[in-house]
Structures
1.
Amino acid sequence: MIYAAGNIYGKITGKWMVMDTIKSAEQLEQQLMHHAIAKDTCRYLRDEPVDGEMAALYSTHSETPKGKIDMQIWISKAGGLILRHDTDSDGGKVLTSSRYEYGNVKPPL
């Protein structure tokens, strides 16, 4: 996914498409956080590099009515931005790993 020029772009079956606006996605996230019934924990694990950049690694655990979600999040020590996050939901049924880049980001053509 690419977040640029106020939109969120996703590549589906080889074609880039506008999936949503960044503002709309932020509003939805705020609504979900406001109405969520969840037990959340977060803890610092250690510092380690991500693509040569030092990052603080955090572990989170959430329990919601829909299931459990475990995440590991690497946050840049220099810039404070997320560099990577791995998510395990439904006890290993859904695993995702995302890497973030912040330089030279443009909307896809």
2.
Amino acid sequence: MKSLSRLSKLIRVILIVCIFASCGIFEAWAATATTTLVVSATIVDTCTVTATPLTFGTYSASSASPNDATATVTVLYTVGTGFTVAFDAGTATGATLAQRRLQNAVLSSDRLNYNIYRNTARSEIWGDGAKSTYTVIGTGTGVLTAVTLTAYGRIPTGQDVGLGAYADSITVTLTY
């Protein structure tokens, strides 16, 4: 009998719990808590600079016209951020910003004068801003949208030099 009485009490407790649960009384015992998730991001300056070759092709000292060519400098840079592009004098012996030189690959004492300009009139030497040279200033349009700059090269007429291939190497510096 005692076990039946205990079983009966247990069934009543279970029934009472079920009734309260179905009425939502236990929901009042539930609690919630909230917090704030802080979200942030930082954009860093991202940039690249590339340049196509400045190729003059064949030069003839007897030509009445200078030998002109162009190259493209491409800047990919963070939106709205300013930058400056400068060129050095090159690697040929005796080269300066005012007078760059292509050097003969075989006979290094042979040099062909030339220069690089930032304008189509070829009157503003593209250099580092020193000694009457200019730099090019721009604003980034994004790392997915290129800023394209044109370098205008010119070999003046009347330079009597030896046969062969002539070359130079210019360092392009992007400052931001």
3.
Amino acid sequence: MGMPAIQRRWTTADVRDLINESPRHWPRYELIGGELIVTPSPGFPHQTAAMELLFTIRPYLVEQHIGLPMLPPADIELVPGTITQPDFFVLDPHSVADTVEMPKWADFKRLFLAVEVISPSSVRTDRIVKRDFYLDAGVPEYWILDPVARMIERWTRDQETPEVCRSSLVWLPEGAKSPLTIDVPTFFEEVWTKFDKSK
């Protein structure tokens, strides 16, 4: 007979201890609602999609002089008692208090964008738990990249259902003078081209 599961409410200190004990930064540890979320190291398609998004968005952010594009590891505390590490995110550098000279991840209190790359093992976490968390925490947009279906689910705080982007996604973050248009089919073609051994 199996032992009953012991319910434990994790703290940020507990999770930071786990993070510090993991020299390669994987598995990824996150904390939402007192529950520990453990994610194994990402597969090649997952990591390629996150990197391709970085390459796509970074030049736009530089041109518009807004936001810092980032990839994990990065233990962010948007809400006290939580730690998250989106697969890709855009920080608002001005969300750090002026008195902080050398900021830590916990000092950043605002994101322009949080993105997760979905995989079979993360469907519920990405589509429900993290979606609700980021939108409730004030993140203006939350995207879910699905490399297999070649689509991007786009959630905003005023939507009850996502915008499913299969052809294009137009993003105009706060402070930008002009929007960024992502050609979704071309984006995922770039992701999957990395697997084409004939090239």
4.
Amino acid sequence: MIDFFRTMLTLPAPWLVWVGVLMTANMVFPLFYLDTLEGKVVLAAFAFGAIVQTAIFSSKGFVRLLGVGHIAWIPMVIWLWPRVGAAPPGGLFRYWLLGTSIVVIVSLVIDATDVVRYARGEREPQLETPDRSSR
């Protein structure tokens, strides 16, 4: 997992910002809402994705197939979206639900594009794993 995160740190700046937004919405903010089912579900889906992506990375490197790791986000966002309207208006919880849903939907579009490109033959790693000897 450490090599996976070290490799992600070599992403171009705009993609690093995007990964930061994803991690904040799906890993950091749910910690503030662990007393809710929504917080637990989002955090669990994030953890599941991290495990799947780490396994893919370990066997294939930083390839477009990594988008498969977000497969649990599909049922999560379908379940989460109606809860946005049910949350108290104007509250931070509602804004988190809305923001997370939007970010996840955008990410799923990117992931689907990447997985299709992988299936069509773009299987070369997008990033090289940093050399451990350079530490």
